[in-house]
Amino acid sequence: MRYRLTFVVGLAVGYVLGTRAGRERYEQLKKTARQFAQNPAVRNTAETAAMQGRQFAGKAYHTVSEKVGDHMPDSVAHRVRSLRERNINGTAEDDWGTSNT
C-alpha cells in the first residue's frame, strides 16, 4: 500500500508541475530531445554500442554454449548463428533499421 501511495503522490506532483510548465516548455523539451537524438555523434555512439553489444553477446553465447552443450534451445542457437553470419557478411542494417557504420 505504501508504494501505491508513493506512486500516486509522485504522479500528482508530476502532473501539477507539468501543467504549470505548460505547452511551451513541453515543446522546448521535445525539440531539445529531438536535436539530441539526431546529433551525428550521439547516433554513432549508439550504433557503436549496439555493435559492441552484439559482439559481446556472440562471445557470451560461445562461452555458454561450450559449458551448456546440447541443452541450448534450437531457436536461440539459430538466431545467434544468423547474427554471426550477418556480421561476417557485412550487412549494412540490423533488425531495428539502423546502420552498422
DSSP, total strands: 0
Structural class: mainly alpha
Characterize the largest beta sheet: strand count, sense, and whether it forms a barrel.
none
- Give the oligomeric state of the chains in this entry, treating copies of one chain as homo and distinct chains as hetero: single chain
Q: Helix amount, in percent?
A: over 70%
Total of DSSP H or I helical runs spanning 4+ residues:
3
The secondary-structure element order is HHH
Q: What share of residues are in beta strands?
A: under 5%
What distance lies between the first and last C-alpha atoms, to the nearest angstrom?
49 Å
Q: Mean pLDDT score, rounded? A: 78
What integer value in Å does the Rg equal? 22 Å
Shape: elongated
**Poorly predicted spans:** none
Verbal overview:
The chain contains 3 helices and no strands. The protein has helices at residues 2-38, 40-68, 74-89. By secondary structure, the protein is an all-alpha fold.
Keywords:
81% helix; mainly alpha; 101 residues; single chain; 0% strand
Set out the fold topology:
Layout lengths: L1 H37 L1 H29 L5 H16 L12
Short recap of the structure:
The protein is mostly helical. It has helices at residues 2-38, 40-68, 74-89.
